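Q: My labmate handed me this sequence with no annotations at all. I'd like to see what the chain might look like in three dimensions before we decide whether it's worth expressing. Could you predict it?
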Amino acid sequence: MLQYNEMWKGSFSMTQNPLHHLLEYNLDLGKTKPDTVHRDERYCPFCDVKNLKNVMETRGHMIWLENAFRVLKDTWQTLIIETDNCDGDFSTYTPEYATELIRFGLEKWQQVKDMGTFKSVLFYRNHGYLSGGTIHHPHSQIVGLKDYDYHEDIAPYYFVGSCVHAEPGLEINIAHRPIIGFYEANLILTDRDKLPQFVQYMQRTAFFFMHRFVRFNDSYNIFFYDFPGDDRLFVKIIPRFLTNPLFVGYKISQIANMSHTDGVIEKLQDTLLEDDLTDHRQKG
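A: Here is what I predict for the chain of 284 residues:
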């Protein structure tokens, strides 16, 4: 059998062996994980606070702990239980609680990066049936990757887009070159003193994708990014649907036609600048 490098010799230049640029997921362990999203399971491990193990820090209702199901090889998996409300959602937290939560998450993300143990560190959250999560209870994940640098795959051009809103210290756009396809909202923070405003725009963007984007959608992801030598904070909020087959089979990312995009931008602008969304808000 031909070796990988022999099989593809001369086809294209590679800066790395693609067979090494992967994460191994332990499916045998993964199938034992509790799932309150896709199965009708009554027990929520994040509600059972007294039996949580490997808790590293508690701040109010927020709990940072090691993931009990370490399904990713050569990683350190941690998570943040965001609230004691099992049915809560980031988009409807009070602005004060949401800011406190994101500040806590950014602090822990930086703490893991400062350990110097990992090539890169992921910080993200899932919400909804199609988001890839298995626990309904609101939580975020911080994962240190020992041998994988996500910056080799995620370039700054993924955060260039059509402007939705801009003000001193931050901007929001719809990606011209989405990672997976169609609509990806980029939020870029250049002034950390504007974090409370930035977080409110994150909430409103998530709310928009949940309630005003299309008729039926209950899923989104939020991803946080940093880039070496760049002090800005980059965030992607992506509504989740079944992944389009052109991306699955060919890694072709699709974008919407311009007239549709213009309509989405206008509706998102209205949501970002709307005077009051308090009817939908709850405590953390």
